[in-house]
Design brief:
This protein is of the alpha/beta class and about 270 residues long. Helix content is about 25%, strand content about 25%.
Length: about 270
Amino acid sequence: MEMPKAEIGVFGGSGFYSFLEKVEEYSIETPYGAPSDKVTIGEIGGRRVAFLPRHGRYHQYPSHEINYRANVYAMKCLGVTQILGPCACGSLQPHIKPGNFVVCDQFVDRTSGRKDTFYDGPIATHVSAADPYCPTLRKLAFETAKELHIPVHERGTVVVIQGPRFSTRSESKWFSSQGWEVINMTQYPEAYLARELEICYVNISLITDYDVGLEGMPEIKPVTHEEVIKVFNENNEKLKNLLFEMIPRMPTERNCICSKALEGARFG
């Protein structure tokens, strides 16, 4: 069977693909095992889009058990050159409120034991992660959100924790004191693996909660799973509208840092 083709990929929650046109599902095999689910391919504004629920369509894979390498490699196999990675996140700062969107420009990795590279040898490959998110797609995401009157922050650092547990109060206080804005469980290594394959990647964080609360604000209670789902569902329509406005505007030609990530990354 001939491999289907798509130019844009979306990692996200189940349900997104129900809005795609001319939908078909495919099982993709990779050298890194099976992705989280079948890939759904359809069209938005004339662009071929591949959708993969990172947790599986039944949310059966917790963040620390997701096969990130298989997910990203599956997109590469389809010909995807740009990935949108929306996700639910907690806020670590008072000015970033539940219901806001954050277009992150940095991450801090606090995970452990995850398979986080395609380059285990025999050629040493060191891909820069100085600016881990695509600057072109970040600018487009921010400008499109502003046009849609979505409350959005142009940049932010997401600290990625191992999960599945939420943070202790001391951990959250530490993260907040560093000035980091967002907390999440899936952005690493997903974003970095895309860079290793020279795929553009943009994160859109949908803020659902204030983590365990904020120092000096006792009225804000620690996050619960139920609250995350409630706020995410309330704002899912905004996220869908943003993605559907962005996708037709995404560039067909690339000259960003992502497309040249392997230049100078290897010795010899």
